[in-house]
Amino acid sequence: MARDMSQPTDVAIAVNGLDHHFGTGEARKQAIFDVNLQVERGKLTILMGPSGSGKTTVLTLMGCLREVEEGSVNLLGTELNGATEAQLVGLRRRLGFIFQAHNLHESLTATQNVLMGLQVHGPGDQRKQIAAAHHMLALVGLEDRLDYLPGSLSGGQKQRVAVARALVSNPDVIFADEPTAALDKDSGRTVVEMLKALGQERGTTTVMVTHDNRILELADRIVTLEEGRLVRDEFPRRQTLTSAAVKET
Amino acid sequence: MTLLTGRLPIGWLQLAHSRTRLTAALAGVAFANILVFVQLGILGSLNDSTIAPYGLFEADIMISSVDANTLLDGSNVARVRLFQALAVPGVSDAAPLYIQNVEWSRPDGGTSTLQTVGLEPEAAAFIPSRLADVIPQLILPNTILLDSGTRGLAREALEGVTPSTPYRLELSGQTISAIGTVRIGGGFTADGSIYASDQTFLNLFQNRSSAAPNHILVNVDEGLDPDVVVARLQEALPTDVVKIGTKDDTAAADLAYQTTERPTGIIFGFGVIIGIIVGIVIVYQVLSTDVADHLREYATFKAMGYAQRFFLGIVLEEAVILAVLGFIPGVLISWGLYTGMAAATGLPLEMGIGRALSVLVGTILACVLSGVIATRRLAAADPADLF
Fold first, then answer.
1. Residue A161 pLDDT > 80, yes or no?
2. pLDDT interval class at A2 (50, 70, 90)
3. Can you give the C-alpha Rg of chain A in angstroms?
4. A172: which DSSP letter?
């Protein structure tokens, strides 16, 4: 896939002076205040913070799920502020999403749900696509659940189908919004470990929103938001804090 | 696994996934169809029953009184117009047509209004070919052809009726013999029809005179355009007293009068319009509910990079499936209702291919349009707002 070289190749997402408001008129309220963040390529970055801190908003702004109104988000070399619908559609195809609720299509089997992640790139050789979907489902340990509908899978299995759907087309960036919230401890950890292992193998950048302490130790970097502001930036896997972006308020 | 070329048939998979939802949606579409079919059937029965009596005679041109809107109303036409018409170049033949309603006290105690048509049995050119064999026998006094579809008349009453074994009935105090049958059926102004010779007609209606028929029927020379002769007749005859038009135009004007100037026609027309509007609203509800039910799933697809036309494709697929599958029970139930209503009223209610096809096409269009409108909400929203 062609890459835009307008920014350092080790930065997948550059956020500068990002503000965001919700509501209109009297009810208009600022939710995000001047967030600056550079997400490194190939790393697992976790966004933390109490509920209402704006972490999911930042994630959806970076992931083309919400229109960027003030400030700048540069995703894979494309500026999202003022991007056209066609640009957004093109970018979304280079991303993988995992949501809090698995968001699988209830009428499609596990294999068909994963196929949806492939067919977004256009119709192709059906047999190859099905083989790729089956391979991906086997990687997340669901080789014996290929033709199950989501309704007959457990919560952890559904989330693993969602992981397979997000990863099957080798996205550049994976966005995960509290992927373990609906899961018990073991299946939650399994899903994140799987995500991290598969991501590292492919050099995928992963941005994950969570307030699940059980999975923090897997992170390369932990960014904390409070009341719409970035308040802490930690790199637990490097022994010392090296980032200059640390701001204590 | 159902895999079609290109992409998964998501519309169909979605519909097939929930039986209850599909059943409810199909019931909605079918009900909208039934609503429109019933209204069209009622309006159609007015149209058909208005036109049906015109099938009792043949003519290229009809001369009627200027104040006549239908076969039955308006003043009579002086017989002298017949001779004036015959003098016009291009006119090959002319004959008087008599029409009047008569009350028949049936043997079972009920009353039927019979629209009696009187025409000279010798006027072969004006007699429909299907009646050509039996009409000459009407030369016998007080013999008629009775409408086998007459409201109130038992269906088997006219079985086996022949000139030698007639069905006898009492009309205007005289015993009349039905020696054969025609099939016209009841309408909104009469319960059935009688076909008689002019002499029998004048005998039944003593106050009528052979000098003043209701209409003059005119045929033109072979190969001549009736419109040309209509223009010549308008030159030759006093158009402040009579109006002249081709038979088709006269029938069409009658129909237009019945449907746009008579209360029944206007009400039935409103019924059709209301039926169509309510039908469209129901179909829109079905489609927009379906889109709303799947909005989360569509938002996920949108987040994955599917463009708007992908969702349009799904919804159009669903729209066509719902329209076609809903139409099948809709048309079958309507057909049953037509049969029941026709039996109860004696009105001509038939499920014509043309009507069925236009309702099917209309249903598909309404479903597709509703689907397009229902997906617009998806186009405008950020995916993040839809989860």
1. yes
2. very low
3. 18
4. S
Q: What angle do CA A212, A218, A221 make, to 5 degrees?
A: 90
Closest CA to B194 of B116, B141, B134: B116
In the numeric block, which tokens belong to residue A84? 């056209």
Q: Give the integer Cα–Cα distance in Å for A54 and A67.
A: 15
Cα angle B192, B117, B340 (rounded to 5 degrees) comes to 15
- Residue A228's φ and ψ, nearest 5 degrees, are 85, 0
For B380, list phi and psi in degrees, rounded to 5.
Answer: -80, -25
Cα B76 vs. chain centroid, distance in angstroms? 28
Å from B312 to nearest chain A CA?
15
User: What are the chain B neighbours of A20 within 8 Å (beta carbons)?
Assistant: none
Instruction: Take residue B89 and report the two structure tokens written for it.
Output: 């170049």
Residue A39 to residue A48: CA distance in whole angstroms: 14
Of B17, B302, B385, the CB nearest to A106: B17
Residue of B nearest to A127 (CA): B3
B125: DSSP letter: G
Domain ranges of chain B: 2-50+263-385, 67-238
Among partner residues A97, A147, A165, which is closest to B1 by beta-carbon distance? A147
The tokens 């490194």 sit on which residue? Answer: A40
- Decide if B220 contacts B90 (C-beta within 8 A): yes
Question: What does the buried/exposed string (b/e) look like for A62-84 if buried means 16 or more CB atoms within 10 Å of the residue's CB?
Answer: bbbbbbbeebebbbbbbebeebe
Q: Which amino acid is at A246?
A: V
Helix runs in A68-217, H state only: 85-92, 110-119, 126-139, 155-167, 185-202
CA–CA dist A137, A168 (Å, integer): 9
d(CA B287, CA B308) in angstroms, rounded, equals: 17
> CA A153, CA A162: separation in Å to the nearest integer?
12
Query: Mean pLDDT by 10-residue block, N- to C-terminus, for chain B (387 residues)?
Result: 59 88 92 93 91 92 94 91 93 94 90 93 89 87 90 82 88 90 86 93 93 94 92 93 94 93 90 91 89 88 89 90 94 95 86 92 92 85 78
CB contact under 8 A, B300 and A97: yes
Q: Which residue of B has its CA nearest to A162?
A: B300
CA triplet A135, A140, A141: central angle to 5 degrees? Answer: 90
At A73, which helix (H) or strand (E)?
Answer: strand A70-75
A89 → closest Cβ in B8, B13, B305: B305
Closest A-chain CA to B379: A85
H or E element: which one contains B370?
helix B353-380
Strands A70-75 and A11-22 turn out to be: antiparallel
What's the ipTM?
A: 0.84
Taking CB atoms and an 8 Å cutoff, what residues of chain B touch A94?
Answer: 305
